[in-house]
Protein: protein-serine/threonine phosphatase
Amino acid sequence: IPRRGRLQKRESFALVKGAVLLVEEGEREGLNEETLPSLLGPRQGGRASDTQRRHLHAMISLLRPEDTVKLAVRLESVSPVRVRYLLIIGTLNQKQESLLLGMDFPGSDSDECTIGLVLPIWSDTQVYLDGDGGFSVTSAEVTRIFKPVSIQTMWSVLQALHGCCERAVRGAVIPGCGLEWAQHYRDNVESDQQCLNEWAAMTGLESVRRGTGGRSSLNRESVEKDIKAQLRDIMRTEDLENITSKQVRTALESRIGIDMKDYKEYIDNEMMVTMAQMDKPSRILDYLYLGSEWNAANFEELQKNNVGYILNVTKEIDNFFPESYSYMNVRVYDVEATDLLSYWNNTYMFISKARCSTHTHTVMVYLTPYEIYCLCMGVSRSASTVIAYLMKQQGWTLDQALNHVRERRSIVQPNEGFLKQLHTYSGILNCPLEEEVQARNPPAICPQRSSHRE
Structure:
C-alpha cells in the first residue's frame, strides 16, 4: 500500500476477516496461505473483502508519514450501521513507542473515517479479559474496554498488545515521558459525540441473562470441568473467525443447561488458553520444537514434524502416546522455588540423543495450559529448559538464547526463579572446570555436528 508524505515507502499487510496485520520486511518473502495463519494466530486465514481494503486505505491516510499500522481489528458496536476499528500504531524512534487509535466509519460502505480514541501504551499499561467477550486496557489510570468481532481477532490483538507492553517496559516509556507524537492524534479527534461515548464506555454490550435453573446448584468445580470439555469441542468445530465469545457462552448454556453469567471470566480465560494451545509448535532449531499440550496430543502433527522424542516438562500432564514416542519427564511445578537447574544436564543429553537418532527424529518440548501466556502468565518451565540447551549446545549467552527463543515464540517468559537459575547455569558453562569435565566426559553428540566445545 503506497504511503503518503516524505517517506514514500510501501508496506505489506496480511488481511483476513476482522483483522489486518503489518508484515515486516523479513516476513514478506514466502508469505502464502500456509504461512498466513502463523502470523495472525491459529486457524486464521481466508481473504479480506474489498470493504476491508478500502477501510485500511482510509485509516492509513489519517496517519503521520512516519507512523504505521502494526495491527487493526474490527470491534463490535452498539450501532447496527457504524463500523469501528482498534489500531495499534508504531512510530520510528529508538523506544519503539506504541499507541492505540480508535477509528469510526459511519457505515460499511464509507471510505472516510474519523479518530475517536487515542490511548498511549505506557510501561504501566495493563491488559485484562473483561469476562464478557472482550478485554480492557488500563493506561495511566485510564481504562477502556474493547470487544473484537470474533474470538480469532481477540487472540490476534491480545498477542500484539502483549508485545507492545513489553517494549514499553524495556524502553521505560513512563507516563508523561515520551510519546509526544500522540498529541498529533489527540488534536485530530473528530468523531461525533455518540462515537466518543462508545469509546469511553461499552456498557450497552454487557450480556445479562436470566438464570435457567436446572444444574445451577452444582458445585463450581464440576461446572468448570464441564465448561472446559464442551468449550474445547466448540472451538475445535466452529469457525473462530465468525463466532464471538458471547455466542460461545450461549452455546455452552445450551449444552450444559445453566446460566453462564457467573462463569464469564473463567470462559474467557479458557478460550485464550485453548487458542494458545491450538497454535502450531514453534521451531526453535531444525530438530527442536517448543509446543503446547494441544500439540503434544495431536498425533498427526507429531508425525508430520517427524517427532520421535518428547520432553515433558510438566507435573500436570501425562504422556499421551507412550507406545509411539520416547519420553523424558521432568515432573516439576512452575514456581520460582522449583530447582530446574539440576535437570538441565539430563535434558541436554536427552535432546542430544534424539539429534543423533539414526532416523533423524526431532524433539518436541511441550508445556501445560498453565504456562500459556494469557494476560498474566507466560511460558516458563519448558522455555527455560530449551534456553539452557541452546546456551550449552550453541555456546550462546543467556541473552542470545532467550532472544532466539522469543523471536520464534513471543510469549516466552521464564519466572524470576528460573531466570536466576539460567544466570547460574551460564556461569557454570563458562567456568574452566566445566570445560575440563566436558573434555573428560563428552556429551552424546553426532559426529558430523560441530560445536564450540568440540
User: Anything to note?
Assistant: The domain at 280-440 is CATH 3.90.190.10 (Protein-Tyrosine Phosphatase; Chain A). Residues 390 and 401 are 6 Å apart (CA to CA). The first helix runs from residue 25 to 28. The first strand starts at residue 12 and ends at 16.
